[in-house]
Write a structure and sequence with these properties.
The complex is a heterodimer of chains A (147) and B (89).
Chain A (H helix, E strand, L loop, with lengths): L1 H25 L3 H4 L1 H25 L6 H27 L14 H4 L1 H15 L13 H6 L2
Helix pairs in contact in A: 1-3, 3-4
Chain B lengths: L1 H25 L3 H26 L4 H25 L5
Helix pairs in contact in B: 1-2, 2-3
Classes of the chains: A mainly alpha (147), B mainly alpha (89).
Chain lengths: 147, 89
């Protein structure tokens, strides 16, 4: 009975590990690829390590706790590394297959130039002298000071 | 029963290692390769644990724990390098 249970756990873990790497191989862009191996880490390797813990706890005298340690460590670190990878991919501005969301209601006020104009207007109302479209020309005395 | 399922599992995990190695070679970008390395070390842990059950030896768990530690540190260092251009600032 225990043998069937262990075989089930081992086969489930191996199949999930396989599917995770298959996702890594087949999916289209990094952001979708990122989620395949996460399942391989948590469910796949988790099942294998539980199977190993049960096996060594029953077939030898001592209770085997190494696997629990590895499982705990993997469960803690997998989200951190996935988060850092996603941050790096966003930083490098990688290609994504996700469409840019269309937003018809804020189309007029949502563009970058319109937002910049709005900010300029609000600043001008509070402090009209702070924004000049043309750069301030240097005085001749400033130019003479430079070597 | 257990021996047959361990052999099937070893085959599947080896295929997983080969696929993530192919992604490591293909790229196309640096985060893809880092992700492939991350998957490779997780697959290696799975292979080591399976091999430990197959041989009936508890010797491999320290190696698996070390691989988990070093792999995580490697992934974080590579991502920090991509994000900041420097690892220890």
């Amino acid at each position: 009975m225990l043998e069937y249970f262990l075989s089930f756990l081992i086969l489930t873990g191996a199949i999930f590990t396989f599917i995770g790497s298959l996702g890594l191989l087949r999916l289209k862009d990094l952001f979708t690829r990122l989620h395949g191996p996460t399942k391989a880490t948590t469910l796949g390797v988790g099942c294998l390590l539980i199977a190993s813990a049960v096996y060594f706890s029953t077939y030898t005298e001592a209770i085997s706790l190494h696997e629990i340690l590895i499982t705990l460590f993997l469960f803690i670190t997998a989200p951190i590394s996935a988060h850092l990878l996603a941050k790096a991919a966003l930083h490098l501005d990688l290609q994504s297959i996700a469409k840019i969301p269309e937003n018809d209601e804020v189309e007029e006020s949502g563009t970058d130039a319109a937002i910049i104009d709005d900010i300029k207007d609000s600043v001008k109302e509070s402090n009209p002298a702070s924004i000049n479209d043309t750069p301030v020309p240097l005085d001749e005395t400033d130019l003479q000071k430079k070597p | 029963m257990l021996a047959i399922s361990i052999q099937i599992a070893l085959t599947l995990v080896t295929a997983a290692v080969v696929m993530s190695f192919w992604r490591l070679l293909r790229g196309p970008d640096t985060p893809d390769r880092i992700l492939a390395l991350d998957t490779l070390y997780v697959n290696t842990i799975a292979l080591l644990v399976l091999f430990g059950i197959y041989l009936g030896s508890a010797l491999f768990f320290e190696a698996a724990l070390l691989i988990a530690l070093m792999g995580f540190i490697g992934t974080v260092a590579l991502c920090k390098y991509l994000l900041r251009g420097d690892i220890i600032e």
